[in-house]
Amino acid sequence: MADHIKIRKAPGKWVVRAGGAVLGESQNALELTEGDYPMVIYFPRDDLAMAMLDKTETTSHCPYKGDATYYAIHTKSTVLKDAAWSYEDPKAGMEQIKDYVAFYASDTVAVEQL
After folding, report:
1. CB count, 10 Å around CB of 111?
2. What is the mean pLDDT of the chain?
3. How many domains does one find in the chain?
4. Residue 39 phi/psi, 5° resolution?
5. Which pLDDT value is given to residue 1?
């Protein structure tokens, strides 16, 4: 694992909301910190309403974590393109985030500790 990336169990219970709907709640979320970047919460897929997420064609590559796949969130009123991402086949040392999804917190997506 890259020395500047730390992954640990996120303390407490976490929720992700978009468009007035709860996409998921978890007590099994992970907290990933990478250098000076803000902390990111990764939610287990089993704790998310994956039916509200559709894989997009967008991908990106991180030399430390691997290739990311992106997801759109479907709300009642809109589609939030590339609002979430996942490392479906992460690099060695990053296996903890496999089967987890992270979200871009914004004015339309909230990631909060309960």
Report:
1. 20
2. 95
3. 1
4. -60, 145
5. 53
